[in-house]
Amino acid sequence: MKTSPDKDHIFGLSCPYNGLTFYATTEERDIEAKDVIQDHLQEGEWSEDVGDVFAFTVTHKATQVDVKHPEGELDEEGCDENGDYWPSDVDFTCNYALKPLAPDLPQAGSEISLALCVAGLEQPG
Questions:
Q1: Are 94 and 66 in contact (CB under 8 A)?
Q2: CB burial string 17-45: b at 16+ within 10 A, e below
Q3: pLDDT exceeds cutoff 50 at 120
Q4: Which of 51, 57, 49 is nearest to 25 (CA)?
Q5: What is the pLDDT of residue 53?
Q6: Cystine design at 80: which of 71, 85, 105, 122 (Cβ 3.0–4.6 Å)?
Q7: Residue 86 carries which DSSP code?
Q8: Is 5 among the domain residues?
Q9: Are 95 and 117 spatial neighbours (Cβ–Cβ below 8 Å)?
Q10: Neighbour-count burial of 10, counting CB atoms closer than 10 A to its CB (0-12 exposed, 13-18 middle, 19+ buried)
Q11: In angstroms, rounded to a whole number, what is the distance separating the alpha carbons of residues 79 and 56?
C-alpha cells in the first residue's frame, strides 16, 4: 500500500480508517475501494463515516523550487562566498510550489508558493 503519490501512482483513495493510499491504475484503486467500503459495514449497520470514503486523481504535488546551496566554502563565521550566513545544520534552502506529477498532466494556471524550507536534509534526486 503506497501512502504518497508519485508519477506512477496518481489514483488515490481516502478512508477515515486507512488514511490516503495511492495506486497505479483506477482498476486497482476501485477494487480496494469496494473492500474499504465493505469494511464500514459492521453487524449489518453502516458506520457513519462510510460517506467519508472517496477516490481522486492527483495532478500536482508540492515540490522543491528555488533550491539554493551555499556558494563555495563557508568561512569561520558560517558565511559563503556571497556573504550569506548558513547555519551548520543547513545544507540548502528552498521554496515549495505545486508542480505536475507527470509532464502529460494538466499545468496549473499559476504556481502557488506553499512554504519556505530551510533544512539540513539531503535534496531529493
A1: yes
A2: eeeebbbeeeeebeebbeebeeebeeeee
A3: no
A4: 57
A5: 95
A6: 71
A7: -
A8: no
A9: yes
A10: buried
A11: 46
Give yes or no: residues 29 and 46 share one domain. Answer: yes
Instruction: Report the length, in residues, of the chain.
Output: 125
- In one letter, which amino acid is 57? T
- The count of domains in the chain is 2
3-state SS class at 69 = coil
| 109 shares a domain with 77 | yes
Q: Which three cell numbers mark 77?
A: 563565521
Measured distance CA(98)–CA(78) in Å, rounded: 32
Cα–Cα distance measured from residue 75 to residue 70, given in angstroms and rounded to the nearest whole number: 11
**Cβ within 8 Å of residue 51, ≥6 positions away:** none
Does residue 45 belong to any structural domain of this protein?
Answer: yes
pTM for this entry = 0.69
Out of 54-68, 91-105, 110-124, which region has the weakest mean confidence (pLDDT)?
110-124
- Residue at a domain's end among 24, 40, 57: 57
Domain residue limits at 39: 11-57
Q: Are 102 and 7 in contact (CB under 8 A)?
A: yes
